Fold:
Amino acid sequence: MKLHEAATAPNCRRVRIFLAEKGIEVPIVPVDLGSAENRQAPFRKKNPMGRVPVLELDDGTFIAESVAICRYFEQSQPEPALMGGNDPEQAARIEMWQRRMELEIALPIMQVFRNTHPYFADRIEQYPEYGEGQRTQASKRLEWLDKELADREFVAGDEYSIADITAQIGIDFGRVTKFKVTEETPNLLRWHQAVSARPSAKA
Structure:
């Protein structure tokens, strides 16, 4: 088994944190995004979308998409449960919040980077106005998340879950484009300090 990934990519970090929380170690195969290795034919045989991470199983099967990879490890090693375990209500609630963190927090922050940062200037067609619009949207959603966290310890409830990991990797990636959690959102700041103090945050 191997994990093809890039250290700087937020979705790769999502998988690394997930694995660290479960105490699972998987050999890493670095993918050089700077040289566009992920867009070349050898890598596209692993994932036609040309995205990292990709989990390569021992039988030659390739699994792409970070949440799908996390699901594989959740099923393989159920404890500690990060996606709800066998409790249907808990699993559904965590999936609900994981999806919200992906669409409302991580994705807008990533779109700011894709559409405004020089890194992508000669890689994709950028839409700076859209990127700045996403910056406004992300800021509003962080304020929304701050209110949600007023009455619970973690994003999906009292237990740490993949929803927290998704929110964390999105917010931390935002540092590249000047996003920062401050005392203006005290509940979000408290949560961010707590998840950042977990050993897995170093993954």
In short: The helical segments are 10-22, 41-44, 66-76, 88-116, 128-148, 162-173, 186-196.
